[in-house]
Amino acid sequence: MHYLIASYNITPTIYEIIRKEAFIVIPHLVNSIPSYMVNDNNYIYVANKSGGISIYDFHLQLIAECIDEHPYTHICVNDSKIVAVSYRDGISSLFEYKDTLIKRFEYQHHGSHHDPHKRQESAHPHFITPLTNNKYLMCDLGSNALTTLQDDDEQITEYTHQSIIFDNSCGPRHLMFQKDQTSFLLVNEVNNTLVLLSFPDYSVLDTISLGEDTTKLNEITHSLSAIRYNEANDTYYVSDRNHFDVSKVWAIKVINNKLEVINTTNVGKHPRDIYIDGTLLLVACMLDDTVEIYDISTNTKITTLPIIEPVCVLPLKEE
Questions:
Q1: Sign of the alpha-carbon dihedral angle for 188, 292, 8, 76
Q2: How far apart are CA 313 and CA 276, in angstroms?
Q3: Inter-residue long-range contacts of 23-28, CB under 8 Å, 24+ positions, other chains counted
Q4: Chain centre distance of CA 317
Q5: 297: helix, coil or strand?
Q6: Domain map of the chain by residue range?
Q7: Whether the Cβ atoms of residue 125 and residue 111 lie closer than 8 Å to each other
Q8: Phi first, then psi: what are they for 100, rounded to 5°?
């Protein structure tokens, strides 16, 4: 496999990492600053920090682009529909790509559950994933909730708002369903907890703390970020962007509906995103301008690659 790295480089760039005898880094200039990337069997879909979304083929040739004023944080694809969320502007936008890429509509989210922290002063959608029947599940870090969105072909409707905090603010950032789709893991950025919830009733099965609760502190210390799953060892990995100490990647198993930390790896500054490929752990260290690669079987670093402000890792299968 090889990997694409989205970068906040002021010169819009997507980096390619290829492993032959060694790891090779190839920069590809693109039209807009990328924030997050996903792919299906046909294309690479990019949410742009500089506004709008872009679609590329697997050689990073631009296929289509729809630029607007919103910096998008995350993106998901559901057949011909693409939904992107903007953390800064508190919106969800629905695009569609058939013969052309068009923006069909956007939805403005409102409200905030708590206000203990600047990240929770208003709605801040951060992550979105498709469910069945044209529904989408969204993490709203600012409103402190999971929100279900319905696409009825004319507009997006926020038809239910599930609060998933029970004693204070948590700041839901990312989530990942287990393979059987009967439960999912939720990463909370503000109180730095990982929560296992059943689906579709959203009842809490287990919770573990992976850092200090920043709602109780004057300074932001820990800040949980990405979650990834490694099928090779049936383990989840969560990155912790510790602002004053050593940042970590936590290895966690789900055993009988309980979360268990089995290992930690000390990594570089501000691991915005991670990916695990067999025994390889790739860490996008945003503030170090590097992608670090570790061997998780020995918990040792293999190499450090210079990449400007890496923010997302996308694996691609070899052709």
A1: negative
A2: 10
A3: 23/293, 23/303, 23/305, 25/305, 25/306, 25/307, 28/60
A4: 20
A5: coil
A6: 2-220+257-268
A7: no
A8: -135, 160
CB 208 within 8 A of CB 161: no
CA distance 91 to 317: 32
Contact 192, 208 (CB under 8 A): no
DSSP string computed for 130-170: E-STTEEEEEETTTTEEEEEEE-SS-EEEEEEEE--SSS--
Residue 39 burial (10 A CB sphere; 0-12, 13-18, 19+): middle
- Domain 2-220+257-268 belongs to what architecture? 7 Propeller (2.130)
- Render each residue's pLDDT in the chain as its tens digit; 319 residues: 899 999 999 999 999 999 988 999 999 999 999 999 999 999 999 999 999 999 999 999 999 999 999 999 999 999 999 999 999 999 999 999 998 999 999 999 886 555 556 667 788 999 999 999 999 999 998 888 899 999 988 778 887 666 565 556 788 999 999 999 999 999 999 889 999 999 999 999 999 999 766 555 555 567 899 999 999 999 999 999 876 677 999 999 999 999 999 999 999 999 999 999 999 999 999 999 999 999 999 989 999 999 999 999 999 976 5
Amino acid identity, residue 120?
Q
Lookup: tokens for 203: 């009842």
φ/ψ of 288, rounded to 5, equals -95, -10
**Terminal-to-terminal C-alpha distance of the chain:** 9
User: What sign does the dihedral 223-201-92-52 (CA atoms) show?
Assistant: positive
Residue 64, strand partner residues: 55
Looking up tokens 């890496």 gives: 310
Are residues 38 and 76 in contact, defined by beta-carbon separation less than 8 angstroms? yes
Half-sphere exposure of 250 (CA within 13 A, CB side): 25
Burial 170-191 (b: 16+ CB within 10 A, else e): bbbbbbbeeeeeebbbbbbbbb
